[in-house]
Amino acid sequence: FAKFHWEDPLNVENLLTEEEIAIRKTFCLASWKDGVQKACDDDNTCVRVSNVNPIEFDPKVLPEMGKLGLLGSTIQGYGCAGTSQVAYGLIAREIERVDSGYRSTASVQSSLVMHPINEFGTDAQKEKYIPRLAKGEIIGAFGLTEPNHGSDPANMETTAEEIEGGFIINGSKTWISNAPVADVFIIWATCKWDQKIRGFILEKGMKGLETQAIKNKVALRASLTGSIFMDSVRLTHDALLPKSKGLGSPFSCLNSARYGISWGVMGALEDCIDRTREYALERHQFQRPLASFQLVQKKLVDAQTEVTLGLLASLQVGRLKEAGQYSPEMISMVKRNNCGKALQHSRIVLDILGGNACADEYHVGRHAANLQVTNTYEGNFCHFLLLNYDIHTLILGKAMTGIQAFA
Ligand code: TGC
Ligand code: FAD
After folding, report:
1. Which of 86, 174, 188, 371 could form a disulfide with 318 if both were Cys (CB 3.0 to 4.6 A apart)?
2. Catalytic residues, which ones?
3. Neighbours of 11 (CB within 10 A)
4. Helices within 283-327 (DSSP H only)
């Protein structure tokens, strides 16, 4: 028989290319873990990977990712690594093994800002923004969600009006990752001239553009979130992403982000398993290690089984994506399954820590809280409901029955 490795029970590594294995190993971000603990010690909502200023995002995070080639990794040229889709997933998994907030920051930069510029932008826009975004020199945000329109972006109220020399944008966006520190904003607006949704590139400092941080988040604290207000922001024609048209354009960005999240959450659950397994081996009750109790073993085995199946499913979607043979429903399936399973099993293995589940130094509680948001963003985080899970259920339900149940 082959040797059984509990960390990779079905030998997923065997299905990766040598380059992908090298990328995965290069991007094991062990050195960042100390910083994350500091982030969670702080009694505020903002990123803390240093002690310099407890209320400000640490600008070192994205440049560090840029140096490692983590940002926009699948893009060819413009200083990007040009990796496979599977490598992009592996990167998300390694980052989220550290913290979902870091993965979120990276996902937004890569899938929601660099991707639309690359897909829908002009050569000049690509030259201007992508190399700096790849290095993490500038930070991007993606504004789709509005105060009155989250699940139904089709009804957004933000508008673009054509004027001589360009456009005027009016409206507001909320729950936008990276917004409080962003230099570049991909803003989706309904164009008054044909009622189609298109993307526009806005820059920090433009007259009429304001952002505000959303404070006191109870999870995903290592990522900044905020609102964007646009009061007659004047843009020149070159701010339009000319190849964007219709809701399919922002959704194509979400396909990429959701695919990455399906890998990322498996990394977070893997970290929960590593930590609780170690704890169960060391901690004794009834003169025996916790790991010797059948109920404790079952928790670990169930969680590891879900990680393995989830990774295999995402790997298959990644390969199909590389071959141009994927559908958004496939992404909905792995996003829905992996986020749901990661949340469920992180909470179950959290039990193994007993009272220490409450102590931030054990990290599993932080992951479990973050994983709630990975299920819910693109959903109603405050009510702790599984919107993304719900929405992806309905996307798959429509594919199976042909009946649209959203509205
Ligand atoms: P519907 O009529 O189904 O579709 C409208 C048009 O869009 C096309 N389309 C897609 N195209 C590409 N990829 C997809 N996944 C697509 N889904 C739909 C569709 O073919 C159609 O095209 P056309 O040419 O016929 O007009 O749209 P709907 O209004 O009924 O909405 C359906 C629904 C509910 C599934 C959709 O609106 C939805 O997914 N809502 C959730 C909103 C959402 O996910 N927001 C995310 C904001 S970004 C974010 O949260 C980032 S979190 C940070 C991080 O990633 O870490
Ligand atoms: P609502 O749409 O009001 O939904 C509320 C509840 O109603 C949910 O439980 C949902 O399940 C249910 N519901 C709604 N419609 C249906 C239906 N048809 N059938 C069944 N149930 C339904 N957005 C961005 O654009 N960019 C970002 O970078 C970004 N980052 C985020 C980061 C964080 C930390 C969070 C929490 C959110 C972020 N979002 C971002 C916003 C997110 O995408 C929205 O919260 C999401 O689209 C849902 O919108 P909503 O919060 O308005 O919830």
Report:
1. 86
2. 378
3. 12
4. 294-322
For the record, the structure tokens of 205 come out as: 């400092």
Tens digit of pLDDT for each residue in 140-173?
999 999 999 999 999 999 999 999 999 999 999 9
Measured from the Cα of 395, ligand 1's closest atom is 35
**Closest protein CA for atom 4 of ligand 2:** 380
* Ligand number nearest to the C-alpha of 104: 1
Whose structure tokens read 């994983």?
A: 371
The radius of gyration computed from the CA coordinates of the chain, to the nearest angstrom, equals 21
Distance separating alpha carbons of residues 67 and 21, to the nearest angstrom: 19
Structure tokens at 206: 């433009």
Of 105, 99, 86, 130, the closest CA to residue 29 belongs to: 99
176 within ligand 2 shell (Cβ under 6 A): yes
In ligand 1, which atom is closest to the CA atom of 104? 56
Mention every residue, 6+ apart, whose C-beta is less than 8 A from residue 50: 35, 38, 58, 60
Q: What is the pLDDT of residue 329?
A: 96
Q: Which two tokens stand for residue 50?
A: 């240093």
Beta-carbon count within 10 A of 324 CB: 6
Best residue among 247, 321, 375, 388 to mutate for probing ligand 1, ranked by most atoms within 8 Å of CB: 247
**Cβ(378) – ligand 2 distance below 6 Å:** yes
How many A from CA of 27 to the centre of ligand 1? Answer: 31
Question: What is this structure's pTM?
Answer: 0.92
Q: Is the CB of 99 under 6 A from ligand 2?
A: no
pLDDT at 238: 97
β-strands 166-177, 225-236 pairing: antiparallel
Q: How do beta strands 225-236 and 288-289 pair?
A: unpaired
Q: Are 196 and 240 within 8 A, CB to CB?
A: no
Closest CA to 39 of 52, 30, 48: 48
